[in-house]
Amino acid sequence: ALATLIDLLRRAGKGEESVRFLELAERSSAKIPLSPGFNYCKGLHASYSGNSHIALKHFNLARKDSVWGERAVLAMIWICLNPDNDTLGGEVFAEPERMVAERKENDLLSVKAAEKLLHDLRPTNAQSAMRVRVLENYCLIATQTKQNVERALDSFMEVVATQSDHVPALLGSAIAFMILKQVPRARNQLKRIAKMQWNPIDAEEFEKAWLLLADIYIINSKYDMAQDLLKKCIQHNQACFKAWEYHGYVNEKEASYKDAAMNYERAWQFSNFTNPTIGFKLAFNYLKAKRFVDAIDVCHKVLNHHPNYPKIRKEILEKARANIRV
Prior knowledge:
By secondary structure, this protein is mostly helical. It has helices spanning 2-11, 18-28, 36-48, 52-62, 69-81, 97-120, 126-142, 146-162, 167-179, 183-194, 203-219, 223-236, 241-253, 257-270, 276-288, 292-305, 312-325. The chain is globular and about 70 Å long.
């Protein structure tokens, strides 16, 4: 029940209220802090708050349990494969080639950690076995090698051939198509998902599919179509910081800096004020909107956690200070 409550509070944009319920549960018994279920819930809240390392620590304390173990391991694998909750296959916020190359070694270590965790899973039914198969394919995709991505794609397409409405497989195939630069085929898979009725079991996959399709539309300057999908994301999950970030990006492209700042504020809030990229964008749009004190405040928050974050000191902080002095 507590795990469900944490998820519902997040979707209502009230994730911070989870802390109170976790504290109440912890005080109810001396044994609670050691229980696998409680640690799973702590891990869930931490992962929703953008604290991947803390989340992994708590999920690890639950992963050997017969009731909570599988869910904990699945969550750990997703953190290994996508710790920053990026839009897999997306191009709007893609990093420069130099940064991708620098991260490659760390990414491969994370993939190996995910594969090791996968070996711990012992599927108990067909549904569980399918979840493992989907994650095996995501591990292949995460290596970013053409051969592995094609292997994952073939596997996903086999699933879709027998279960045409299998949302995780449709999404996985779309991501593979994007990495293989076959954008029209990716878009077709995502449109199939967009036409389906949302359901809570595939909620995360629906959200990822809508975000990726919005990403494609934004790249092609189809902002209205993108924003319709982003509104859908927020309707089902107020705390979807990526949807708010995309909204801010579209506003920025249209030179609506006040609106961009407002949307980046929500993205900053729902990423728990820890994502330096969003912090940079928020500070930049505060600067453009002549909110110099707010820009300085966000710069300090980013630099406190990331002292060497590129460009923010020279391009935003110093300019905001200069404008205040003037």
